[in-house]
Amino acid sequence: MVPLSWYLILAAALFSVGLFGALVRRNAVAILLGVELMLNAVNINLVAFWRYGDVTTMTGQVFAIIVFAVAAAEVAVGLALVISVYRRRNTVVADELDMMKW
Amino acid sequence: MNFWNDPLKIAADWMEGIFVGWGMDAVLAHVLVAFLGVFLLIAILMVVDIFLVWVERKVVARFQDRLGPNRLGPFGLIQPFADIIKLIIKEDTTPGGADKVVYNLAPILSMMSVLILWAVVPIAPVMLGVDLNVGVLFLIAAGAIGTLSIIMAGWSSNNKFALIGGFRQVAVMVAFEVPMLTMLLVPTIFASSMNMNDIIQGQGNLWYFALSPLGALIFLVAAIAELGRAPFDLAEGESELVSGFNIEYSGMKFGMFYAGELLHAMTFGGIWAILFFGGYRFFGLEQVSPFLAIPIFLFKALIGYWIIMWVRYTMMRIRIDQMLVFNWVFLTPLSFVLLMVTALMNALLKDASLWIYGLGMFLSNVVVGWIALEIARSVSRKQRESVEGPKNLAEAPH
Amino acid sequence: MTGEQIIFLITAGFTLGSGFMVVTTRNLVHAALWLVSTLFGVAVLYALMNANFIAVVQVVVYIGAIAILFIFAVMLTRKDLRENTPQINKNWWAGALLAALVFAGLVFLLQGWSGFSKTGSALPSDFDAVGMLGEALVSPNAYVLPFEVASVLLLAALVGAVYVAFNKK
Question: C-chain residues within 8 Å CB-CB of B133?
């Protein structure tokens, strides 16, 4: 049996990789890719806590399902925003979207 | 337990005994035998696939009043082998500017998405790969890989026709997954399980087709769209896109798309048989021996495959916008309503006798289908009148 | 080392490697495809933890819908960001440092936790996780409220996405 610590360290590493992507990428779509990695890392943790805790309490799996729903909603709205911005400004580079900055 | 009741288990135990006798670790021997089983299943499926090429060509020839392949061997049976030799020795081209890795990965993924389906398909009471408790959802997951392979092929070919074909196919597959998933839940409600084997066991008295004929029909339509066959073959659309997403593929890479499509069609025939026609069940014959259950299952799968071919070669292709409107405006709401009605009837008639249960389900299906057709008829009449003006009754012949 | 641990290590390496490729690849379609392989690795991890339903839903929702949506979005917004322009910020080292600090901090925090090196017990033989999950999602004294809120969220996202991306002509 794999110890719980392995899953937690893997999830922490995946979260950090996603954080790196979300911080350093210039393209807005690529930033969303990094956010997806972070959400997946969270989900690994949730399912691991279900498996290594009391398996008859389904809290971990229920939360993982809700994270799926939130991720789907986030991607749909996020990508719609990116496409809408691209239509108006003809760019998806996050640095260049600075109309709100003075 | 003897060989006739459970041949695979006996053979696997025998092989494991041999491997352990050679001084191999018991766990390693178990894994090795499992791998051999997978290879055996895939090898058998590929051989079946070769004959599907012959079946398909022969049947389309009959539909079009031709003879089909009849030169090589009896009834042209050797023709598919000649086709394979031709595909293998053909030049294997890669278009300039193509994304090589993605381009070569796409046909492999396409074939894989079909073969992986057989991991959960029970071909006999004791013969199935994995007894997965979410077997029904697994079908949709495998379909997701197929969708991915098509968008990869369309994008990496560096060809605008391929990209348009890929986009169309993905739009269609994502759209038709909704009614398909909804209709997969209908047998799940009847069997109160997502396990394929439980669904077959639940059809001991009555096939689910008798309980939900409308569900079986919607599933078939969604399956044909998922397969990308006529009347929904917009991804290939020879007359407008030349060959669609696989336009740049040649040789065995094209062969893998083609063989994958044929095997996919037969697999969906088999899944249709499992979900609505009792799978390997046939009046208790399947209990005698798996050697009887496998032919029964294959026969039902081939009938489903034949119906898919029948639809393919007698219907014309419809336009992409008509097809998506058909899905989102007609098929998806209808399947949601049907699912809700089925769940409601199931809750109401749970304690009733089998005949009342079956009759209630059947009648509710007929009523839902009739209402849907009436609504569709009145809406389409209004649309036609808005285009052509009201029908002049005096000039009408009747 | 047991077979399960070997499978875990291979899958974890594959997942992390593809995750790293997602954030570093220059070609964005390739990044989206690497995301698919990361998601697939995570699905294998779920299966390894006996969460079959979650594993299959991961493939259906993430690979079948989200990854495809990403590929579409990359293709629809491809005109200006060619592969020869820089894909990462000038001060990428700050991001890398922050990510490394977060990782180190998380591992440090987890190390001090008493349940860190817990090992699980085998599941009971007739354990029906899918049935229990379904009951937990719709039973009034469990999670029916979060479930309904999630469905309202999905509806709002559907309407919002259509409204935002709709091309008013």
Answer: 52-53, 128-130
**Domain end among C48, C64, C79:** C79
Say whether B134 and C68 touch across the interface (CB within 8 A). Answer: no
SS percent in chain B: helix, strand, coil, step 5? 75, 0, 25
Domain ranges of chain A: 4-95
Provide the residue range defining the domain that includes C153. 129-169
Residue B268 CA to residue B218 CA, distance in Å, equals 13
Please state, in angstroms and rounded to a whole number, the distance separating the CA atoms of residues C30 and C50.
31
Q: Do B137 and C56 touch (CB under 8 A)?
A: yes
Alpha-carbon distance B218 to C74, whole Å?
A: 33
Residues of C in contact with B177 (CB under 8 A): 64
Q: Which residues pair with A27 in a beta bridge?
A: A93
In angstroms, the separation between the Cα of residue A48 and the nearest Cα of chain C is 7
Per-residue confidence band for A41, with pLDDT thresholds at 50, 70 and 90: very high
Q: Is C68 on the interface with B (CB under 8 A)?
A: yes
pLDDT tens per residue, range C45-79: 998 888 888 898 898 888 888 888 888 888 887 76
What secondary structure letter does DSSP report for B205?
S
* Residue of chain B minimizing CA distance to C54: B134
Touch between chain C and chain B (3+ CB pairs, < 8 Å)?
yes
DSSP state of B71: S
Supply the ipTM of this predicted assembly. Answer: 0.86
For chains A and B, tell me whether 3 or more CB atom pairs sit within 8 A of each other: no
Residue C136 lies in a domain: yes
Q: What is the CATH number of the domain that holds C58?
A: 1.20.120.1200
CATH number of A4-95: 1.10.287.3510
Residue C123 placed within a domain: no
Residue C91: inside a domain: no
How close is the nearest chain C Cα to the Cα of B65, in Å? Answer: 40
* β-strand partners of C88: A25
With a CB cutoff of 8 Å and minimum separation 6, the contacts of B280 are B122, B123, B124, B125, B200, B286, B293, B294, B296, B297
Please write the tens of the pLDDT for every residue from B178-231. Answer: 899 899 888 888 888 888 888 888 887 788 888 888 989 999 999 888 887 778
What DSSP state is assigned to residue C51?
A: -
Quote the number of domains for chain C. 2
Q: Do C33 and B102 touch (CB under 8 A)?
A: yes
Q: Which residues of C touch B174 (CB under 8 A)?
A: 64-65, 68
Would residue C98 count as lying in a domain? Answer: no
pLDDT at C97 over 50: yes
* Tokens describing residue A20: 């790196």
Chains touching chain C through at least 3 C-beta pairs below 8 angstroms are A, B
